[in-house]
Amino acid sequence: MTATKYILSDVVGTGGMGIVHRAVAEGSSTPVAIKQLRPELVAEPLMVRRFETELRVGQALVHPNIVRLVDHGDTPLGPPFLVMAWADGESLATLLSHGGAMEEIDAVSIVSRLCEALAFAHEHGVAHGDVKPANVLVAGEGDAAMVTLIDWDSRGSSANTRNARPSSSRAHPATWRPRCCAVNRPGSAPMSTRRA
User: Fold this and answer.
1) What is the pTM of this model?
2) Rounded-to-integer distance, Cα 13 and Cα 11, Å
3) Beta-strand (E) ranges in 75-185?
4) Residue 152: its pLDDT value, please?
5) Is the N end or the C end of the chain the one with fewer CB atoms within 10 Å?
């Protein structure tokens, strides 16, 4: 359990499992993001296990395009929390809804960085489980863009299980690991999951 105290400010995100605050450590001006398990879910073993799995995944994955876990602990009232490095930028969902289609150079830059992050996670036996524009933060443009993949839906993942299949019905088949499915388009050759 962390001995660091954090000062919470704005709520920057909410979900079915947790609430995310912008915060700073006491005595520091560097912002962090704190994800806390919803208090009403503390008594639900399945949700607690999912939160603990997200913690283990965060400890296992250190990559420039994956949100970085810096601390964790429990609040005095019980709900556990994760402390993550603050990632600047807006979600890809917001950028697309406000600006429409992206320039090719920006789209390629973002997708290539996401592919690097996902490949790294897969090498460590972890599938994201919920890849979507809302879970991608983008700061900057073109080759200088900083892309961060957040909110790992770890129900179908294990930090030491390489062949985990997605167990969440929310995970679209197009976001599954190649070994989990093979999709053949009409008129195309069968897909291969072999590595080059």
Assistant:
1) 0.72
2) 6
3) 80-85, 90-91, 136-139, 146-149
4) 79
5) C
Q: Residue 73 belongs to what H/E stretch?
A: strand 69-74
**For residues 69 and 84, is the Cβ–Cβ distance under 8 A?**
yes
What number of CA atoms fall less than 13 Å from residue 125's CA on the CB side?
11
- What is the CB-side half-sphere exposure of residue 64 using CA atoms within 13 A? 7
Q: How far apart are CA 81 and CA 88, in angstroms?
A: 20
Instruction: Give me the amino acid identity at 148.
Output: T
Question: Which amino acid type is present at position 172?
Answer: H
- Strand ranges of the sheet holding 31-37, from the earlier edge strand across to the other edge: 6-14, 18-25, 31-37, 80-85, 69-74
Find the farthest-apart pair of alpha carbons in the chain and give their distance in angstroms, rounded. 62
pLDDT in tens, 162-194: 333 333 434 444 444 444 433 444 444 443 333
CA–CA gap between residue 155 and residue 17 (Å, rounded): 12
* Catalytic-residue membership of 153: no
Closest by Cα among 134, 125, 121 to 90: 134
Alpha-carbon distance of 107 to 102, in angstroms, equals: 6
The one catalytic residue in 10, 71, 74, 130 is 130
